[in-house]
Amino acid sequence: MPSKSSGVAFVRETQLPELPPPTFETGPIKWMRQNLFKGVTSTFLTVASVYAIYLALSMVLPWVLNGIWNANSIRECRVILDGAAGGCFSVLTERWNQLLFGVTYPADQYWRPALAFVLMFPALAPVLFSHLPRKLLISTVLYPFAAFWLIWGGTIIAPLIALAGFIAAYLVYRRLVSASFAAGSLGGLCTAVIVWWLGGYITEAAASVIALEPVPSRNMGGFMLNMILGVVCVSLSFPLGIVLALGRQSSMPIIKWICVMFIEFIRGVPLITLLFVANVVLAYFLPPGSNFDLILRVIIMITLFASAYIAEVIRGGLAALPRGQYEAADSVGLDYSQAMRLIILPQALKISIPGIVNIAVSLFKDTTLVSVISMFDLVGMIRGPILASTDWNGVYWELWLFASLLFFTVCYGISQYSQWLERQLATDHR
Amino acid sequence: MLKRYLMAAVTGLGMIASTVTAATLDDVQARGKLNCGVNTGLVGFAAPDANGEWAGFDVAVCRAVAAAVLNDASAVEFLPQTGKTRFTALASGEVDMLSRNTTWTFSRDVDLKFEFTGVNYYDGQGFMVNRDLGVSSAGDLDGATVCIQTGTTTELNLADFFRSNNISYEPVPIETNAEARQQYLAGSCDVYTTDASGLAATRATFENPDDHVLLPEIISKEPLGPLVRHGDNQWGDIVRWTLNALISAEELGVTSANIAELSAGTNNPEINRLLGSEGNLGEMLGLDADWAKRAISVAGNYGEIFDAYIGESTPIGLSRGLNAQWTDGGLLYAPPFR
Question: Which of A389, A394, A85, A77 is CA-nearest to residue B180?
Answer without folding.
Answer: A394
